[in-house]
Structure formats: C-alpha cells, structure tokens
Amino acid sequence: MNPIFQLSTRKYEKEIKIVKKAMDELEITCKVKNAYELSEPFTKAGWTFFNVQISSKMFSIIEKSGMMKGALGFRIAEQFKNFLGHYLESKGSQVRIKQINY
Fold first, then answer.
1. What is the pTM of this model?
2. In the chain, N or C: fewer CB atoms in 10 Å?
C-alpha cells in the first residue's frame, strides 16, 4: 500500500509549484523516478485540497536512510507525515498536511 497524504492551502497556484519542485528534489535524493503522484485539486470553503501519494519504494528508501530521524510521532505513519510536512516547509511551502491512508 502506498501512503497517501492530503495537502491543503489557500494559495494553490503558488503552492503546487513549490510542492512539485520539492517532491522532484526528493525523488533525486532517493534516486527513484515516478515516486509520487498528485491528485486533481478540489476547492471547499476557500481552501484547495489535493493528495500526494508516495510510492512504496520511495517510502522505504526514506525510512531506511535515516531521513526521518527526529520526526516526531509514535507510529511510522505519523513520523512520515511529520517528516514530509517539515520537508515541504523547508522548501518554502506553507501547505497543511493530513494523513489519509498508510
């Protein structure tokens, strides 16, 4: 099963560019291709929501590489969500992240 996270923002056009660039850089770091997929966005109450699905291969590489060291959480899914949120934030994104499926 591939982890799926829901991202939300009020500035979709700006944020989607940042998220794509950050995820492309993460693919390069992990040395994998086509390791994530972004869903079509939908808008509700002024917020735009879209999902990012991470390939099991990229997830495994991130987990085993020690990249998540310092990410808080009791379960691996929570740690990965926190890692991804901090990673996107470090690249300039201000999206909110929520775990949907792990």
1. 0.88
2. N
